[in-house]
Amino acid sequence: MFAIKRELKLNNVETSLMRGNAGFKRWVYNFGLELLTASWSFEDVKASDFKRIDAIKKVFTQVTMQKPEYAWMKLYPSTVYQSAFIDLKDAFSRWRKGLAGFPKKKLKKKGDSFTVYKTSGIYPEIGKPALPFTNRVVINAGSLIKLPGLKQLRLKERIDFICSSQTFTVSRTADKWFVSFMLDAQKIPPIFHPIQKIGVDLGVKTLATCSDGTFYDMPHTTKTAKIKLGKFQWHNRNHVLGNKKLKIQASNNARIYYTQLAKQHARIANIRQDTTQKMTTDISRKAAVIRIEDLNVSGMIANHKLASAVSNNCFYEIRRQLIYKQPFYATKVELVDRWFPSPLDVFILWPHSTDGIE
Questions:
Q1: Are 83 and 215 in a shared domain?
Q2: Is residue 232 in a domain?
Q3: 265 in a domain, yes or no?
Q4: Looking at the 3D structure of the chain, how many domains does it have?
Q5: N or C: fewer beta carbons within 10 Å in the chain?
Q6: Would you say residue 228 lies in a domain?
């Protein structure tokens, strides 16, 4: 499976449409979350979270959307609110399994995103569901893309081949909007790796040290960008982006400041993402077996002297990328116990070994 993410080239009208769809999904998600938590107070009702959410969805479509004050909801595709209920189910499923915290309300300042997808539909002449392949959108090569339920939009970077997908997620980072979708394609993994085994030791001063003698560092531009960000925040420390409870509207200068602030945060995140992606790809291409320590990242962040360096070096993100790239490069990632001698220690003991640790 491959994912494609492209930046959208929007005008003011299209940007307002994207913000409206994101706000619609946020409203529905918070609506379902509030009713679901309120339904737990009725002890006589015994039903799972999924059944409760399905009942809330019926109330939303049959009662809430029919009210005159909510007529604006019919201006947006129905798949937007349907995907909001799907996300709510996933959030509670992860919480029940202990994989995430209790779901929180969606906030506008945390970012905008929504999902639309193509439904199969029904043949009008026979009244039966359409064939399975009709629930996909064909995307032609070029700089245009047609999203289900929305108008045709322009892309800043063209797509060089014809493809198809069913689900599309539109998200905003700073003042840029992106669309991402999955492709049903398989990558042929390599059959040969120059190194059989390699150990990767993550550190604070050096991003990663491999048992074959390779070193990876986080670019110095991240430190420069963080210093610039700190100075920018200090000079604009008195700007407040409004307060709904106190009925204080945000000034134009405050809006401009927070937009520029989001851009600088996005730039730092892009530098880190680019560095970790290139590093994990390089390691996956040259080694068949990758051994990495099972670090206690949350415990290391609790130390205020190491928190900034650990967060900047993206320890957990590196591990996540190595794991999900296993089928792409025919690698095997093995987690070493945190109390076991690190790959770097083993490399120091046997400096002439080029096959990593045994």
A1: no
A2: no
A3: no
A4: 2
A5: C
A6: no
* Pair (151, 215) in one structural domain: no
Residue 140 and residue 47 share a domain: yes
Q: Are residues 145 and 215 in the same domain?
A: no
Asked whether residue 201 falls in the same domain as residue 329, the answer is: yes
Q: Which residue has the tokens 């893309």?
A: 145
Query: Are 6 and 134 found together in one domain?
Result: yes
| H, E, C per residue of 199-218 | EEEECCCCCEEECCCCEECC
CA dist 137 and 153 (Å) reads 14
pLDDT at 209 over 70: yes
Q: Could you tell me if 105 and 210 lie in one domain? A: no
pLDDT digits (tens, 9 = 90+) for 229-274: 999 999 988 888 878 788 888 888 888 998 899 999 999 999 999 9
Residues 151 and 206 in one domain: no
| Owning domain of residue 175 | 2-183
Q: How far apart are CA 163 and CA 181, in angstroms?
A: 10
pLDDT in tens, 168-204: 999 999 889 999 998 887 778 888 889 888 888 888 8
Q: What is the pLDDT of residue 62?
A: 93
3-state SS record for the chain? CEEEEEEEECCHHHHHHHHHHHHHHHHHHHHHHHHHHHHCCCCCCCCCHHHHHHHHHHHHHHHHCCCHHHHHHHHCCHHHHHHHHHHHHHHHHHHHCCCCCCCCCCCHHHCCEEEEECCCCEECCCCEECCHHHHCEEECCEEEEECCCCCEEEEEEEECCCEEECEEEEEEECCEEEEEEEECCCCCCCCCCCEEEEEEEECCCCCEEECCCCEECCCHHHHHHHHHHHHHHHHCCCCCCCECCCCECCCHHHHHHHHHHHHHHHHHHHHHHHHHHHHHHHHHHHEEEEEEECCCHHHHHHCCCCHHHHHHHCHHHHHHHHHHCHHHHCCEEEEECCCCCCHHHHHHHCCCCCCCCC
Distance CA 127, CA 281 (A): 50
Domain boundary among 183, 212, 231: 183
